[in-house]
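Risk register update: the risk that structure generation would not scale has been downgraded. Supporting records follow, first protein first.
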Amino acid sequence: MTNPRRAVFLDHPSLDLGDLDLSPLRTCFSDLQLFAQTAPEQVAERLHGACVAITNKIRIDAAAMAANPDLQLILITATGTNNVDLDAARAHGITVCNCQGYGTPSVAQHTIMLLLNLATRLADYQKAVGDGRWQQARQFCLLDYPIVELEGKTLGLLGHGELGGAVARLAEAFGMRVLLGQIPGRPARPDRLPLDELLPQIDALTLHCPLNEHTRHVIGARELAAMKPGAFVVNTARGGLIDEQALADALRNGHLGGAATDVLSVEPPVNGNPLLAGDIPRLIVTPHNAWGSREARQRIVGQLTENAQAFFSGTALRVVS
């Protein structure tokens, strides 16, 4: 007989590094099986006999669903749903739930951290100390790189949902003025400026919008050229929002004051990326870890638990399909 409360987590270490309390989630299931990683050809087999699949980035496609008629619920440990065939889930009567808003404090502080690093040229000064240049200085301090104060500067936000709003509040605490940009593909709003109006006015741009057919490469060579000389760009949303080659070129030619990204168009970048070249000045790249505080990951455990409990009680919570 099929176990109606058997769950399989296909890529468990993508969430838990051994530092989380999984006991709330375990209480939802009579059997929770954890896999470190699952290859595409292993998905259907590992889901055999399970009523619940848990996945972060492992793809669950129509074939895997068709091969597992006992599957009733797919829990995604992230907000994005592109790794699950939602049409196939609907056809098979499988409920799909995601997690939402779990990483807002973590990503917001990471965004501001990157902006502060660019403004203070932290990486350059750290390298200078490591290279022994401060030790050889003729005065008490080393001021080889221009430092920018955020107070009084203007920040442009592309995306002003929960995350963008959190970044705006932190920026305002530093004395920045915040302007909101109009996201392509969405209805115009009087409090949102078209990019052609926004970009020439701002000293820094941070991105917090989804990646879709309207926003892919929303920041390209033309948009970067429209920004003030010396402006900063920070992306903690999706890599495809920025034309990466255009960003590399804008940094090399000195138009931008600096850029930082926590995301790339293909992750992990096993085949390289234009932004990983060693000759790009004033660029910070972090490995898509803005969301990954222990607190944020524990919130995911809580939301997974809530989603499962709601499903088993016959109600709906964070259902995307």
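Supporting record for the second protein:
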Amino acid sequence: MAAGTHPMAANALHGRHAVITGAGRGIGAAIARRLAADGARLTLLGRNLDVLQALAAQLPASAQALPLACDITSEASVFQAFAAARAAAGPVAVLVNNAGQAESAPFHRMDAAHWQRMLDVNLTGTFTCTQAALADLLAVGAAGGAARIVNIASTAGLRGYAYVAAYAAAKHGVIGLTRSLALELAAKGVTVNAVCPGYTDTDIVRESVERVAAKTGRSAEAARAEFVRGNPQGRLVAPDEVADTVAWLCGAGAAAVTGQAISVSGGEVM
């Protein structure tokens, strides 16, 4: 097996064009590495072009990874990025809506700007990117190809958590969008699914741990234990575990799986 090849990879996505939003770090970067190992050609979207370029340089040449700066809260930015991606790598066959942002606040202290930010990034961004890719995905499906939309939601889209009402509402919306769009596209060769990670070992969680520690005066270890406690396996989820689930949904073996919200959370009860 070649160095850097995933043990489950067998070029399952060979030559297919996959667009990943929020690809620069954490779960998005793990997804990029996994889909590249499976043979996909990649477009990497995110706000920080330098970070995307650094990731692209680490990926195999076969991925032909194209890093593009994109603000998913701007319709103009999204459609411009997708046009550039299409011009460089052809029609989009796989869309992974991974970009997201989490902010916390007690509901009584939450202002309208906080609420709107969470909707704009987590829900409307997913809507806009899906609209930008949809014509390509339908064309791929009509030609007998395997077109895939995978939305990275959260266990917060399956249950409530205190102090993240806006984030949870947005992620519930992503799952509703996933289920409805799956029904619309089921007979058109396009599957639509959501992956719902629990607390995952990413910069976002590390930053959240630091905020909790700073606000409460507890140690970072004690704050981290609060995040781990909800996982029956007693640990944070690894980004590669989320990426493996995405890769499976993009493969031939998941052709009959659509409209699902798959929890990757160590058995957390929803």
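The beta strands are 17-20, 41-46, 66-69, 94-97, 147-152, 190-197, 261-264. On this basis the risk owner (M.S.) recommends closing the item.
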